[in-house]
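ok, trying the design again with the full structure, not the truncated one.
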């Protein structure tokens, strides 16, 4: 992972050198996973660096904090400003951004309420998540023997560090057996999601994805894909999906900040469709990449420019085409 050792980390309002971005071993988060966080990307668009759906990610961060009764000492506007400041300070054209709100150092016990709530923001440069070629050729995955958490155990809508113990089990099982990823079912046996990405399938031209009641994280990329697919004229159905729908799908693909839109070419060694990126996956993938690269007009205002004055001076795609 390309961490930049000269980078700064934003910690509770101060930019500190990467090597000094430390917390005490007795911090609550170390022992009890008491953190909520976000993962988002800043892209090097044709109008300059821009964060993709910064508002939606920060809203989810605050939703996650609310579910876990965490009162952030910084409001959303302050964290948004801090994200942009950290990117500028670290001089990234494109990067991955990780804000984390966590229970800090005060006392150790299961009750987190006595500990302070601290906030940090890290940035680093991160390319394709599932390896070179995954976006074009797709990946081989298995259905995990681990289920996603049941609805009344860990809240799936919160992006909390604790949930990633489950994700890590799914991911490790897949990797040690030679697969790129694992797909988890929910505790009712319906398709849920990958260890760190949502899932879509296509059959007879209809796009399907599990509903938020299937113990999924409500992905921002998932929401973007649903929006783009509908705009492209596809019917999108959010509905419970039995496992075998994966095997008989014409196309399957993942969606998430890390994987972006990545085709799946086999599940449990059963080839999906023709074993290549499917045509609808490709169309949706292209629409998504057009937005994040700034090649399409940002009609949904999904891009927050890191240098707004430079972006304003640059020509928008529609105006460029009209010339
Ligand atoms: C478990 C899980 N599901 C889905 C997603 C996709 O969410 P997003 O598109 O907001 O990155 C992620 C990524 O953070 C994830 O960790």
């Amino acid at each position: 992972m390309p961490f930049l050792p000269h980078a700064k980390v934003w910690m509770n309002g101060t930019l500190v050198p990467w090597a000094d971005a430390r917390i005490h071993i007795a911090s609550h988060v170390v022992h009890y996973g008491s953190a909520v966080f976000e993962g988002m990307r800043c892209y090097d668009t044709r109008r300059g660096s821009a964060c993709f759906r910064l508002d939606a990610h920060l809203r989810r961060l605050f939703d996650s904090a609310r579910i876990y009764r965490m009162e952030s000492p910084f409001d959303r506007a302050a964290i948004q400003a801090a994200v942009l400041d950290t990117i500028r300070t670290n001089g990234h054209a494109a990067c991955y951004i990780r804000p984390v709100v966590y229970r800090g150092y005060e006392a150790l016990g299961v009750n987190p309420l006595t500990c302070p709530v601290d906030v940090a923001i890290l940035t680093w440069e991160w390319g394709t998540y599932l390896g070179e070629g995954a976006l074009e050729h797709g990946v081989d995955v298995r259905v995990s023997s681990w289920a996603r958490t049941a609805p009344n155990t860990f809240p799936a809508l919160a992006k909390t560090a604790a949930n990633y113990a489950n994700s890590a089990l799914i991911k490790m099982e897949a990797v040690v057996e030679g697969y790129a990823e694992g797909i988890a079912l929910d505790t009712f046996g319906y398709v849920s999601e990958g260890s760190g990405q949502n899932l879509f399938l296509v059959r007879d031209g209809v796009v399907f994805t599990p509903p938020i009641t299937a113990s999924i994280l409500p992905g921002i990329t998932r929401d973007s894909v649903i929006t783009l697919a509908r705009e492209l004229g596809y019917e999108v159905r959010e509905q419970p999906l039995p496992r075998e729908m994966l095997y008989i799908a014409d196309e399957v693909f993942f969606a998430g900040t890390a994987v972006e839109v990545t085709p799946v070419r086999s599940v449990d060694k059963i080839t999906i469709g023709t074993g290549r990126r499917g045509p609808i996956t490709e169309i949706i993938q292209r629409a998504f990449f057009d937005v994040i690269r700034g090649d399409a007009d940002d009609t949904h205002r999904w891009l927050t420019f890191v240098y707004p004055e430079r972006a304003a001076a640059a020509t928008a795609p529609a105006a460029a085409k009209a010339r």
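Keeping the full-length input from now on. The mean pLDDT is 96.
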